[in-house]
Amino acid sequence: MIDFELEPQVVNRLKTYHMAAEQLMRPISREYDEREHERPWQFFETMWSASAMADVQADTTNGKKESGGATGPEGDGKAEGQAARARMRNLNTVLTTEELCWGDAGLFLSTPNSGLGGAAVMAAGSPEQKERFLERFRGGKPKWGAMAITEPGCGSDSAAVTTTATHDGDHWVINGTKIFCTAGQMAAEKSEGFVVVWATVDKSAGRAGIKPFVVEHNTPGMTVTRVESKLGIRASDTAMIVFDNCRIPYDHLLGSPEVRREGGFKDVMATFDATRPIVAAMAIGVGRAALDFVRGFLTEQKVQIRYGLSPRRLTALERDFMEMEMQLQAARLLTWRAAWMMDVGQRNSLEASMAKAKAGLAVTLITQKAVELLGPLGYSRQLLLEKWMRDAKINDIFEGTQQINMLIVARRILGYGSKELN
Ligand SMILES: Cc1cc2nc3c(=O)[nH]c(=O)nc-3n(C[C@H](O)[C@H](O)[C@H](O)COP(=O)(O)OP(=O)(O)OC[C@H]3O[C@@H](n4cnc5c(N)ncnc54)[C@H](O)[C@@H]3O)c2cc1C
Hints:
By secondary structure, the chain is an alpha+beta fold. It has 16 helices and seven strands.
């Protein structure tokens, strides 16, 4: 049976996230968009302590804490809440992501968290590695995790990674250059975090040789050489990281070191099944921010949206607004489905790409329409609409571009492999 009702504990928690988005993020949204390379440390500290208190880390890092809580005494409301979250961890993550990105997507991405690095550990690490690498996100000072796949010569085709990891005694030695790494500087240099780096252990094995490695913050040989200046999500750092004979312990390879020609790379790619719905939820949060703003503006102007009329009787503005609402809702339903499938243990590669592709398109359309509908006011920096339009586009680029996700959807539906349809 399909049930779209959210449990009361979840709804209550979302209200808290909404308050954080409204009261902590929105007031500094413009400031950190303009001061791109400065970091809002006070905001980080507040979010870090708030998330420790509210058990938020459990949504994005490790289910262990939640299941620990779930064993509490019967009738203990907190334990029930934690158990509900543990059951629907991925769905909860996309719900909270939407709420926080309604506040500010750049600040959301910059919030201390295990991030994409944590998702990679969850997807590819052994139970012991998950515990070892993610434990730190449960306390102490704010920390960040990042994931470095993209290279100067490899982006959409992640199988083309050229960074190498060479086995040397009890260590791996990593050499190569990674670009556009979200939270890369915070993870590598500014906190006790880590960067998960994709590197090949055997070039002759092609994609099967590619493995994820955890590189701890400030490991000698890992250097942040550039932080990008960007169109949108400017509160989030995007780093170039060079690995020059960077030695890491042997057991920092996530999963098995065995090079399996069949299915080995698929396991590594499973990281995207978890992260694409999150990016889709980011897009939905930004889209909803724009839509809510336009709705409020129209109400102030006493312009009514007349639902239920035949299309030929609607004004152009009403049609546009309904189209925006419809696109957002379609993207949201696909995203919930992709996350829910993970929670119930179903493989969701197709659905994760569908959600990501749809949400990337939807948020681009919605934010551009919102600017258009408000005319010069929408284009002006008095409002955040123009910023949301800039923040929106990245959702159509990272974690697989629009075109790449459409390609994956087509391959999966038609039953083609990457060699037959590329
Ligand atoms: C702000 C930001 C943050 C990022 N964060 C991270 C991060 O944390 N970690 C990380 O590893 N990477 C990150 N990236 C990199 C991002 O994932 C890549 O930019 C993206 O995958 C595209 O790869 P590319 O840049 O090499 O572009 P290309 O692969 O060169 O693509 C260029 C264009 O060609 C299209 N194209 C490519 N191949 C095909 C094809 N077969 N069919 C049709 N069209 C195609 C693409 O869709 C795109 O429109 C980030 C990028 C940005 C901008």
